[in-house]
Amino acid sequence: MRFYSLFLSLFVAGSVWSQSLVAVDFTDLKATVFPNFETKEVSGHCQFTFIVNAPTDTLRIDAKNMRFSLMMLNGKAVEYNANARQLLLYTGFKKGKNRLSFSYTARPKQALYFVGTADDYQIWTQGQGKYTSHWLPSFDDVNEKLTFSLSVTTLEDEVANSNRLIAISNGELVKKESFRAIQEGKVYTTWSYQMKKPMASYLVMLAVGNFDQKIASSASGIPLESYLQPKDADKWTTTYWHNERIFNFLEKEIGVKYPWRIYRQIPVRDFLYAGMENTTSTLFAQDYVVDSVAVNDKNYCNVNAHELAHQWFGDLITAQSGKHHWLQEGFATYYALLAEKELFGEDYFYYQLYRNANLIKAAAKNDTVPILHEKASSLSYYQKGAWALHYLRDQVGKKVFDKIVKTYLKKYALKNVVTADFLAVVQRYSDFDTEAFQQRWLESAKYPEADINQCLAKSAMVQALVQLQKERSLPLESKLSRYTTLLQSEAFWPLKAEVLFQLKGQPLAQTEALYRLALERGNLEVLTAVSELLTDIPESLKTSYETLLHAPSYVVRGNALVHLLKRFPHDRMRFFEIAKDWRGANDLGLRIDYLGAYLVLMPETNPDYASLKAELIDFTSPKYESVTRIPALQQAVSLFPQENEVLKNLVNATQHPKWQLVKYARDTIRKLIKQETFRERFTALIPELPTDAQSELQRLLK
């Protein structure tokens, strides 16, 4: 919780820059914030408490492109300076306790995001890697920890919205109050939250949206809040699958009581990542809101466990710098795997370790940056960091490993750490060679093959899978009997998927019986493998293959529809009839695949053609998330590039917070405007676009 004020002085002799470090301890921030969807601005009032421990000439608070007013220090108006990055004060503070208050306004370009439309919007934050100081005066340095208490104000129509909006922040909700605004029919509601312990600024969050809430309780009595949009009322069980079990397992496995007073999880639209471990309040991507079919293709369990583990590893104790980021991501990734082992079994656990090992091995061919480096890859911080911990646990034993982790967490609670701090605790409880471990696992980018193979040798399933993969070059006829037995067995599904992989391109006379066996007796993972690998469907397997159109998997259904339409075009009307009401998962990918196939294969004179075309174009609009808009735009630009609505939505996409959608939109516009016809059409659209979109299009047209 130390804040170091840096000032630069130039020594004339030698022209050397130096810095003076002056200890100022910011202890807490009480803030009221009002994010305004209409103006895309945030305004608020802040009250900081800080202690000056030594003489200093400048106080600095990170604040990106903010406007300030009502600046008061210890009850008196005070002069200040503000640049594009910081708020600076030079006078008015004293040794000991001080209070600083002010109002501010900002129009954040990142870290605070407004998504959706005026009739259905969400507002949410992402601090890690984006800096909370874009929307809240705070500290970019993760070593400056404060106790935050935020009050978030919403504004909505009294009649039309019926107080649907909920505002969420870190900590416990201590008060909610509403009052009518000066504007007739408008209502302000302020939601006040309070934290009791300090945290780094990047973990501060807010979320505003139309949510329903459910509250459960952990075995230790921690309130567990979960949220969903009202439209997802049928998805509570499947989205929060194993939720309480994951919490109870991790609290017991880690061995240290959950460090905060409440835990909540909120899915938000177009979130930048899978999830974010804001203290007490995890945000996660709407993609993980799944129904009873989508949960078989993608579930929230791993992300759930990963972000929850961060409440200890990252929130309670925080790495001092990016160089030691693996202390957060490696631990969270490993404990998430342990949670999945509890849920899905040892074979699942070892298969994930095996897959990650293969990714690490492949990356090591080109990646020369080790884990212990601020520019390490995500694969290194997450998966290789988790593998390092698994190797350590394997060597010292679970009992000693658990004692190490428990001591580490208790010793450094609410503090910042480096790798040496963790390894010192390892040395305290074991004779494990931490120096060799650090050199081989953390400071070298090489693949630690011997260590990993030693661990994987303990899994009979992995060894069987490796043996199967070694047989890929053998003639199929020499393996048919064993492979038939394997497909009939209860063996873990990756073994069966490997068998199916080896059937690709082999004579139908040898493979038909095995494919039929997989289709008739395979579990869902095996059926997924069939739908991906068997693309040229023989007539003899057509009836069996068509059962995939009814599989409890949107991935399998989509694969099957594409392959059947291509292989049996004369049956397309029957296939389209089966798929006509498909929607798919949150991304609506299954529906978009159906629309694309229908609009390509069916004539424009078909009675449904116009309505399905309009539906596809509608999916390209800002009403939908980027995961829907990207495939919809890909289809629409390919099929209907002459439609102005498609081109307008393409330009609008350049203003989206998700870089994937922005990149696709910019790249597509650049490609289209190489043709003079499209350049003229885009130019004609400029007056119809919002100001920001106009500027971006004009830039691209230059």
From TrEMBL:
**What's any one GO cellular component for it?**
membrane
Q: Where is the Peptidase M1 membrane alanine aminopeptidase domain?
A: 243-441
Which residue numbers delimit the Aminopeptidase N-like N-terminal domain?
Answer: 32-203
The GO molecular function terms of this record are: alanyl aminopeptidase activity; metalloaminopeptidase activity; peptide binding; zinc ion binding
Q: Which UniProt keywords apply?
A: Aminopeptidase, Hydrolase, Metal-binding, Metalloprotease, Protease, Signal, Zinc
SUPFAM superfamilies named in the record: Leukotriene A4 hydrolase N-terminal domain, Metalloproteases ('zincins'), catalytic domain
Q: Which reaction does it catalyse?
A: Release of an N-terminal amino acid, Xaa-|-Yaa- from a peptide, amide or arylamide. Xaa is preferably Ala, but may be most amino acids including Pro (slow action). When a terminal hydrophobic residue is followed by a prolyl residue, the two may be released as an intact Xaa-Pro dipeptide
Q: Which InterPro entries match?
A: Aminopeptidase_N-like_N, Aminopeptidase_N-like_N_sf, Peptidase_M1, Peptidase_M1_aminopeptidases, Peptidase_M1_dom, Peptidase_M4/M1_CTD_sf
Matches recorded under PANTHER family: PROTEASE M1 ZINC METALLOPROTEASE, PUROMYCIN-SENSITIVE AMINOPEPTIDASE-RELATED
Q: Which family is this protein grouped under?
A: Belongs to the peptidase M1 family.
Q: What name is this protein filed under?
A: Aminopeptidase N
